[in-house]
Amino acid sequence: FTQAADAYEQLVQISPEIDDYKFAFGQSLYKCGLNDEALRVLNQIEQPSLMNNVRKLQAAICYAKEDTKASQTYIDQCNDDDPDTVINTGCVLYKEGKYDEALKCFTKAQQLTGYNSKVWYNIALCIMN
């Protein structure tokens, strides 16, 4: 991912008006563990069609930083009809120890997505706690 981050950084420098490059750069930085840098890049994106994915990635970054409050703030800005929004909310609730509420989210996500082994795993974790 380091090479990808380097390549996307160059693309952003060459074409700063292309938000897709910024998104890919931010994603690569996140995969490299450079969370603050990734957030800085993502905060520069303005293209409306990318904003739901930007918010999901920002939420994931904050979650990785153990900042569940900021993560939920970004999740709340995501599309309500996106199953990832429900799953991400469930993850935050689980991390906060709110297992019953998390279970409701994961159950709803399972209904929205059909069979998803990761969602079922999260359901099992909630039941075990």
Automatic annotation (TrEMBL):
Renumbered ranges of TPR repeats: 83-116
Keyword Protein biosynthesis assigned: no
Top-level taxon: Eukaryota
Compartments where located: Cell projection, Cilium
Cellular component, GO, one term: intraciliary transport particle B
Keyword Lipoprotein found: no
GO molecular function terms listed in the Swiss-Prot or TrEMBL record: intraciliary transport particle B binding
Single Gene Ontology BP annotation: intraciliary transport
A Pfam family hit: TPR_2
Alphabetized UniProt keyword annotations: Cell projection, Cilium, Cilium biogenesis/degradation, Repeat, TPR repeat
Main localization (coarse): other
Protein function: Required for polyglutamylation of axonemal tubulin. Plays a role in anterograde intraflagellar transport (IFT), the process by which cilia precursors are transported from the base of the cilium to the site of their incorporation at the tip.
Family: Belongs to the TTC30/dfy-1/fleer family.
Name of this chain's protein: Tetratricopeptide repeat protein 30
